[in-house]
Amino acid sequence: MKVSPDDVARRVAQFRATAKDAGLKLTHQRLEIFREVASSLAHPDAETVFRAVHARLPTVSLDTVYRTLWMLNDLGLISTLGPRRESVRFDANPEEHHHYVCVRCGMAMDFESAALPALRLPDAVRELGSVLSTHIEVRGICEHCARKTEDKTVSRFAFRPKGRKGQSHG
Amino acid sequence: MKVSPDDVARRVAQFRATAKDAGLKLTHQRLEIFREVASSLAHPDAETVFRAVHARLPTVSLDTVYRTLWMLNDLGLISTLGPRRESVRFDANPEEHHHYVCVRCGMAMDFESAALPALRLPDAVRELGSVLSTHIEVRGICEHCARKTEDKTVSRFAFRPKGRKGQSHG
DNA sequence: CTGACTGCAAACCCTTTGCAGACCG
DNA sequence: CGGTCTGCAAAGGGTTTGCAGTCAG
User: Fold this and answer.
1) d(CA B91, nearest CA chain A) in Å
2) Does the distance separating the beta carbons of A79 and B83 come in below 8 Å?
3) Closest by Cα among A166, A160, A164, A162 to A145
4) B99-135: per-residue pLDDT in tens?
5) Cβ contacts (< 8 Å) between B112 and chain A: which residues?
6) pTM given for the model
7) Would the CATH topology of A5-74 be identical to that of A98-157?
8) Domain ranges (residues) in chain B
9) What are phi and psi of A23, to 5 degrees?
10) In terms of CB atoms within 10 Å, which end of chain A has fewer, N or C?
11) A 121-160 residues with CB below 8 A of B?
12) Phi/psi of residue A169, each to 5°?
């Protein structure tokens, strides 16, 4: 399944605008990479995007794909699946629970929701497959991080993922 | 913040039972590693668990920690944060949406929920920090995987994480 | 006792980075 | 043209694995 050409065109246009706004150059590579993610519904990883783009633009390199994807992420045009790109984290809480994750430092806290169990999943979900677990993931900036006003400017326009290892004040 | 000693003891007892059931040996290392994750609320990564356990049991190695954590995961005693341990995946869907993720092959599908926006987050969440996004993650076994009845036995008791790269039929 | 388990160290894979040349604006 | 961006290749960091010795049952 694919995103409709119209939607893709719309998103590409938005990318052009956003990039222009931010003073970014619209290279072939960036355009093709964006077009690729924007038209996929499969939540591809960098490698998959790379392969697809590479077929059309044989000179792109995998690292450009990475840089571009993180750039798009910083611009707010795409996002990532899962809390953040770092090591696997384990959870020994046996109760049904949900997660609040700080996008700045990676801190993860459990919370419980009385309302969720009552929430009926759309039928569309049942058609996808069996359901083993359902949980909510809330992302935000934790109290602690909000207080240290320094490094507030995140890394927008740095185009390099922010440093790893952030869970310093767990 | 820590899990209460009582709860930890209870969980350790359950681990003993489950391990016995499965015919697994209860080594110092396993016990200490389990005790460590079971008493933490911070969703530690392997390295963090390793450091803590290492302080008490200077001979453990990081790889034993990994093996044990995956074993515990396979036994269903702990779980992981985020969809699965693999490369970062990108999502270009600009609409508010949620994810269904197949735990077997990694396939991820979007779905929409009319009900979620109405769901009130517990006040406890607001105390943790600001809320940037809220989304549901449903895990299950997708239709496609359910049909191929082979390799159904997942890797329970293999104690080595199942092979990477699974999104073959996306 | 014996096979399951561990520690070690090397391998692996994904991702990031420094640099010199290419290209957008 | 100039600074931004790219491709390259090598480094980095987390995770996995083969092997020989160790230990729980």
Assistant:
1) 5
2) no
3) A166
4) 998 887 888 889 988 777 777 788 889 899 999 888 8
5) 122, 124
6) 0.81
7) no
8) 5-74, 98-157
9) 75, 35
10) N
11) 121-122, 124-125, 127-146
12) -110, 35
